[in-house]
Amino acid sequence: MDDLRLRWHAVCSGLDRSVVARLMRLLLVPPSILYGFLMLARRWLYRRGWWSSYASPIPVISVGNLTVGGTGKTPCVELIARLLSHQGARVAILSRGYGGYGGYDGRNDEALVLEENLPDVPHLQGIDRRQLLEIALDELESDVVILDDGFQHLRLSRSLDIVLIDATNPWGHGWVFPRGLLREPRGALKDADVVIITRSDQSTSKDVNDLQRWIHRRAPGATVCQAVHEPVEWVHHSGETLPLSRWSGATAAAFCGIGNPAAFHTTLARLGVCMAHWRVFPDHHAYSREDVEQLSSWAAGLPTDGIVLTTQKDLVKLRVPELGGRPLWALRVAFRVTEGYEALLERLRGAVDA
User: Fold this and answer.
1) How many domains, in total, are found in the chain?
2) Are 114 and 125 in contact (CB under 8 A)?
3) Domain that includes residue 144, residue range
4) Domain holding 241: CATH number?
């Protein structure tokens, strides 16, 4: 299954230029058009009120995106939860829990990271998010909830719709699933209240400005912000932390299983890491014992002073101190809004106080 997902990404992105891949891209166009039409019709039925959304008695802040993974949503959810908590709100996070792991009570990597970084904020995962909302109300006495990955979850009304757009690949290779990474056509963006352009530092200023102008035209009522995923520190399974400069110039083997592995690779290069080996797993990859053994053999080829690096989302699933006799360190990042921060705060206050 993992190999199939990686193959699909290579086909959709155009990285695979083989004759078979070109044929596959052609064959995926009709189902992509059909799926896009169905998603448009679905959103139109909700807008017209022919399909109804459940009206929550407490504010619901949705954080979502237009594409399948890779926009950096988890650090953004963490930031929104901190901002709401600082305003005195009792916050709970509700999510679908895609890619959960039975070994961790069914929680996925995002829940594990949020649990580690936000120990005081409950995170509920499950298919029925209305039921999760009732638990947040009745058992946790929450007065505001964050609907993680909620832009397409129209069955639950929201007080504020925050949508993330990755500056490095804003439109998922230009096609709706399965030909591309878009979950629905770009026109859905007009329902957003706040649009945050993420990884704005990993694209040219011209591209970011062009993207911002496009968003203003298509979603004139939305507040548009820019943000970066800012490296904070290196973290170890033991809980030890190190400053970012610690591995500058070090020889490393790096791997990840996230939605946008190229962004992680770029960040490591900016931190001065000398990459000897690089490996990519699919997003939400559930590491098996065999994976750990293969990674250990892979890392053993490094010099004796070499290190192994990954992301925090991968570390919380592996939970091992080393691989191949080399220490395993993960990069912890924070979501920092570089443009439109005060406007975002104002929209959050307005949603909570309404």
Assistant:
1) 2
2) no
3) 60-230+336-353
4) 3.40.50
Q: Are residues 224 and 125 in the same domain?
A: yes
Model confidence at 41: pLDDT above 90 = yes
Q: Are 189 and 66 in contact (CB under 8 A)?
A: yes
Amino acid at 162: I
Mean pLDDT confidence for 247-266: 93
pLDDT at residue 100 tops 70: no
DSSP letters spanning 253-290? EEEE-SS-HHHHHHHHHHTT-EEEEEEE--TT----HH
List, for residues 111-161, the tens digit of each pLDDT value.
888 888 999 999 999 889 999 999 999 999 999 999 999 999 999 999 999
Residues 269, 273, 275: CA angle, nearest 5 degrees:
85
92, β-bridge pairs: 145
- pLDDT at 69 > cutoff 90: no
Partners of 65 in the beta sheet? 164
pTM of the model: 0.91
Question: Residue 35: phi, psi to the nearest 5?
Answer: -65, -40
CB 238 within 8 A of CB 204: no
Please, are residues 234 and 281 in contact by the beta-carbon 8 Å criterion?
A: no
